[in-house]
Amino acid sequence: MEDAGPDADGNWAVSAEELSVIRAELACEFPDDYQYMSDAYVTSVASKPYSKDMSVRRPLEYSTEKLSNVLKWRKESGATELLERLSLANGPDSAPEAKSNPEALAKGKALVAALNCGGCYWHGLTKDGKPVLWVRTNRLPWYPDVDALIKSLVLLADTGISLMPK
Predict the structure, then answer these.
(1) Are 153 and 120 in contact (CB under 8 A)?
(2) How far apart are CA 80 and CA 71, in angstroms?
(3) Would you say residue 11 lies in a domain?
(4) Parallel, antiparallel, or unpaired for β 49-50 and 53-57?
(5) What tens digit of pLDDT does each residue of 97-131 get?
(6) Number of domain units in the chain
(7) Which string of DSSP letters, residue by residue, matches 116-160?
(8) How far apart are CA 111 and CA 73, in angstroms?
(9) 22 contacts 45 by C-beta, under 8 angstroms
(10) Phi (first) and psi of residue 139, to 5 degrees
């Protein structure tokens, strides 16, 4: 596809075929998590100017690599398991899945404790309808479980992103 140049916001058009190519590559590499990113987000990433030559759009391979790195980080950091841990922690300790995986239960309970500190919460919407996440660092229980607090921030960010308008 011949690039017509950027629009008024500096973004290039991304065709449906190009979006399908990126989606297919992400689906092959991350079959369980590739749908985490919306079509609008993938298109936004692919439509930006190329950092090595701002007069052209990012190559599709470059955009795909950037998106793959995000999904790889999510998997390696455990971000893909956060909702499962939250559900596990909010269920009974006697549940079969809790008994069979006490480590996940403990991590889930730490995540719940970090979420319940009152230091991070959604505070309405901007005039454009985008959610506002407030992080009040003086209320956060940074110790003893920094990992749980970071994971709670990831979970809150994921929730906000999922609720944003396209």
Answers:
(1) yes
(2) 9
(3) no
(4) antiparallel
(5) 999 999 999 999 999 998 998 888 889 888 988 88
(6) 2
(7) TTSSEEEEEE-TTS-EEEEE-GGG--TTT-HHHHHHHHHHHHHHH
(8) 19
(9) no
(10) -100, -5
Task: Tell me the C-alpha distance between 47 and 14, whole Å.
Answer: 6
Positive or negative, the CA dihedral 35, 30, 14, 129 is positive
Same domain, 85 and 148: yes
| CA angle centred on 90, ends 156 and 98, rounded to 5° | 120
- Higher pLDDT among residues 59 and 117, named by residue: 59
Q: Which two tokens stand for residue 107?
A: 């991590």
Tell me how far apart the alpha carbons of residues 60 and 17 are, in angstroms, rounded to a whole number: 11
Which residues are bridge partners to 49 per DSSP? Answer: 57
Torsion angle of C-alpha atoms 121, 122, 123, 129, degrees rounded to 10: 170
- The structure tokens listed for 2 are 């011949």
pTM: 0.81
Q: Which residues contact 34 (CB under 8 A, 6 or more apart)?
A: 23, 26, 27, 71
**Residues 73, 95 within the same domain:** no
Spatial distance between the Cα atoms of 110 and 153, rounded to a whole number of angstroms: 13
